[in-house]
Amino acid sequence: MVALENPLFSHAVNAPDGVNMMANTTVLGLGIPLTPVTLLLGPLVTYRVLAVLALAGTAWAWYFGLLARTFLAGSAIAVGVSVALLAYPLWFHFLGPQHYRGLPFSPDPYYTDLAAVAAYARESWFGNPVDAAALAHNAAEENTFYGWPVQDVLVWLPTGGIS
């Protein structure tokens, strides 16, 4: 960003061939907008800003996703603007240099069992390593283990739980 080079491709990684940075879009999606904060105040401040924005963004998304039904009307405008702004980055991701052309292994064994949604991860308070191992290939795949409280909320909300 500082050298005004293409932020979507870098020769600093995987030298000398370089790498399509869109392959790791979370880094770009957070790093590019906050480059001025990082340069002026350092990475620790940037991390703290991201932590606060993540919490605020989650709260905002839940509010509009669950309570503000009229928000859906404005979504079409938001989608149109997003498509216009993201056209080049999406092209770069899917068709740019060194884009993905498939996976080196079959993704078929890596699926989420429906029972996992109501289960608890092995490291959670109510987690059980034996039950978790039966539903996921490794601990990293337990990010879909929400447990029963989430199930209760999902059943409670459509019945008018929040007014």
Automatic annotation (TrEMBL):
Residues passing through the membrane, by range: 20-42, 49-65, 71-91
Keyword Transmembrane applies: yes
UniProt key word Transmembrane: yes
Source organism superkingdom: Bacteria
Alphabetic keyword roster: Membrane, Transmembrane, Transmembrane helix
Name used for this protein in its record: Uncharacterized protein
Organism of origin: Luedemannella flava
